[in-house]
Amino acid sequence: MTPQPAPAQTAAVNSLGFAKPPAETRVVVAMSGGVDSSVVAASLKTEGYDVVGVTLQLYDHGAALAKKGACCAGQDIHDARRVAQRMGFPHYVLDYENRFRESVIDDFADAYLAGATPVPCIRCNERVKFRDLLETARDLDADCMATGHYIRRRDGAQRAELHMAADSARDQSYFLFSTTQEQLDFLRFPLGHLESKAETRALAAQYGLAVADKPDSQDICFVPNGDYAAVIEKLRPGAADPGEIVDQDGQVLGRHRGVIHYTIGQRRGLGIGGLGDPLYVLRLDPERRQVVVGPKSALATTIVPVSEVNWLGDQPLEGEVSCMVRIRSTRPPRAALLRPLGGGRAEVELLEAEEGVSPGQACVFYESGGTRVLGGGWISLRRRRAA
């Protein structure tokens, strides 16, 4: 009897989803110098992966060195390098300053000048980290790229899926809605399953990382002390031209010091007190240099137009879809109906009115009763449905 060959052994799938040993799996880790991405890099190296750390230089270090809370300052590059040295993997710093200025900073300034309230961190993920850096990772023959974002990637029945983080207080799905399916196939988020930031810091201490107690960054990296207007004035001289504060009927109530100093829903700092009920910023009109104010009730809206829609559902976005949406990063998802309009546009109807819906912010879609991110879009000019 002729002996039969032994059945081929199927390679075990590693923690990153590849059917090969960790040592044969190259992963590029996007390292900001903070505790989150440092723990990702250290943990993957400890598991035996072929780790390559990459940190992006996104803006001038002369300004950055004086600002410890920013995500890509000179000190942060130094911190990322120290983690790589301690754990024993290569680390590279890439000069993306021109790309960042063109793709993120200029867009930020122009959006504010147009009366919108932009979210530059989303644009940075979309146009720099998950586009240009991801291509660099491919050039380095990486099997995948890992980041320190708090969000989960799961292998679904049909495709890789994006899900909210286990820790709702740290969930960053709002800032990652524009991740494309192709990018999601290549990305990994090792921290998404952790229940708290304390677990991340405990891991950093376990690995002996100097960044274990490093504070989280609070501001947009290129906006010192949260002073958006000062940055925009520097980028676009003359942007802070004064103008009129008017009510919904166009009646002049006062003067303002520049449209860029105001946001939708703002109440304080208008300088027009003593007019009865509190007034809120309802709309910004940069062409007329007007800030339109009115009662809080006028902020309520149920119809939210969105553009540049990115859809991550299993089926094409066709017809009306019941879902949950989040219109600000600090607000919980709310029930809504999503209607595609073609050309990357859609209309979202909120089942309960929301206040302070602002052009330039993101509107992120989630599955009803679940954690899956279905995509999202950018809020365009607000329309209010009459009661």
From TrEMBL:
Residues 170-172 are annotated as: Interaction with tRNA. NCBIfam families: PRK00143.1, trmU. It comes from Paracoccus spongiarum. GO terms for molecular function: tRNA-uridine 2-sulfurtransferase activity. ATP binds at A30, M31, S32, G33, G34, V35, D36, S37, L56, G148. Catalyzes the 2-thiolation of uridine at the wobble position (U34) of tRNA, leading to the formation of s(2)U34. Its EC number is 2.8.1.13. Residues 240-294 form the tRNA-specific 2-thiouridylase MnmA-like central domain. Disulfide bonds join C124-C221. SUPFAM superfamilies: Adenine nucleotide alpha hydrolases-like. It catalyses: S-sulfanyl-L-cysteinyl-[protein] + uridine(34) in tRNA + AH2 + ATP = 2-thiouridine(34) in tRNA + L-cysteinyl-[protein] + A + AMP + diphosphate + H(+). This is tRNA-specific 2-thiouridylase MnmA. Keywords: ATP-binding, Cytoplasm, Disulfide bond, Nucleotide-binding, RNA-binding, Transferase, tRNA processing, tRNA-binding. InterPro entries: MnmA-like, MnmA-like_C, MnmA-like_central, MnmA-like_central_sf, Rossmann-like_a/b/a_fold. The record marks H149, Q361 as: Interaction with tRNA. It is found in: Cytoplasm. Residues 306-379 form the tRNA-specific 2-thiouridylase MnmA-like C-terminal domain. The active site is at C124 (nucleophile), C221 (cysteine persulfide intermediate). Belongs to the MnmA/TRMU family. Its main location: cytoplasm. It holds the Pfam family tRNA_Me_trans_M.
